UniProtKB/TrEMBL annotation:
<keyword id="KW-0029">Amino-acid transport</keyword>
<feature type="transmembrane region" description="Helical">
    <location>
        <begin position="149"/>
        <end position="178"/>
    </location>
</feature>
<dbReference type="GO" id="GO:0006865">
    <property type="term" value="P:amino acid transport"/>
</dbReference>
<dbReference type="GO" id="GO:0005886">
    <property type="term" value="C:plasma membrane"/>
</dbReference>
<keyword id="KW-1003">Cell membrane</keyword>
<dbReference type="InterPro" id="IPR052157">
    <property type="entry name" value="BCAA_transport_permease"/>
</dbReference>
<protein>
    <recommendedName>
        <fullName>Branched-chain amino acid ABC transporter permease</fullName>
    </recommendedName>
</protein>
<keyword id="KW-0812">Transmembrane</keyword>
<keyword id="KW-0813">Transport</keyword>
<feature type="transmembrane region" description="Helical">
    <location>
        <begin position="20"/>
        <end position="37"/>
    </location>
</feature>
<dbReference type="InterPro" id="IPR001851">
    <property type="entry name" value="ABC_transp_permease"/>
</dbReference>
<feature type="transmembrane region" description="Helical">
    <location>
        <begin position="58"/>
        <end position="87"/>
    </location>
</feature>
<dbReference type="GO" id="GO:0022857">
    <property type="term" value="F:transmembrane transporter activity"/>
</dbReference>
<dbReference type="Pfam" id="PF02653">
    <property type="entry name" value="BPD_transp_2"/>
</dbReference>
<feature type="transmembrane region" description="Helical">
    <location>
        <begin position="116"/>
        <end position="137"/>
    </location>
</feature>
<keyword id="KW-1133">Transmembrane helix</keyword>
<comment type="similarity">
    <text>Belongs to the binding-protein-dependent transport system permease family. LivHM subfamily.</text>
</comment>
Length: 217
């Protein structure tokens, strides 16, 4: 609901302008919310317990892995697959993509763009909140728990290609693997490796791994 309110009160007026205005507004809003949370609850991390049913480990054959991380991975795959299926394989997905990518043409076809953009924006905020809840037991809860991920998420979107759901998912897993290997072998360069990967992809394909294919459809 909070995402819908923000979209109706602020974001919708910035949509006709350069996308940079929306980016700056939402980034500034995130900073304001972070400071409000720090003022109310402090900046110290608070533990967020894992469900007791997922507190053990899972034997995956070659190694064991915490059950909660396996659960998060499985839920992430299901959610990503469901969102991709809706956007790529249903009439609702076609309308959503048209309303967000070509709003003028969509209005010309008699579709109320505002009616579709608002709930989609709210759904996106809900997905981000859901991801935060899943990550909380692994990262603890604090007002800045998402700030260190913003740049990484930006890298994921750039690597995958703007407008490509599949590209973002594939790039997310690739960046996760690169970060994990970096943390294991060269911890001091783990974050740098993500941007080395992004630079390499942009040199090879400026539109991202799947950006051009998505744009041509």
């Amino acid at each position: 609901m909070a995402g819908i309110v923000v979209e109706r009160l602020f974001v919708r007026w910035l949509t006709p302008l350069d996308p940079l205005y929306n980016f700056l507004f939402t980034f500034g809003l995130a900073l304001i919310l972070q400071d409000l949370m720090k003022r109310e609850y402090g900046a110290n991390s608070q533990p967020y317990p894992r469900p007791s049913a997922l507190s053990g480990t899972v034997d995956l054959g070659l190694f064991t892995y915490p059950a909660y991380q396996v659960f998060v991975l499985a839920v992430s795959v299901v959610v990503c697959g469901a969102v991709w299926a809706v956007l790529a394989r249903t009439r609702v997905g076609v309308i959503i993509r048209a309303a967000t990518e070509r709003p003028e043409l969509t209005r010309a076809l008699g579709i109320d763009v505002g009616r579709w953009v608002t709930p989609v924006f709210g759904f996106g905020v809900a997905l981000a909140a859901f991801a935060g809840v899943l990550a909380a037991p692994m990262r603890a809860v604090n007002p800045l728990m998402g700030s260190d991920l913003i740049i990484t998420v930006f890298a994921v979107v750039v690597i995958g290609g703007l407008g490509s759901v599949f590209g973002s998912v594939a790039a997310g897993f690739a960046v996760g693997i690169v970060s994990a290997l970096g943390n294991y072998y060269v911890p001091s360069l783990s974050q740098t490796l993500v941007f080395v990967l992004m630079a390499a992809v942009l040199l090879w394909r400026p539109a991202g791994l799947f950006g051009r294919e998505e744009a041509s459809r």
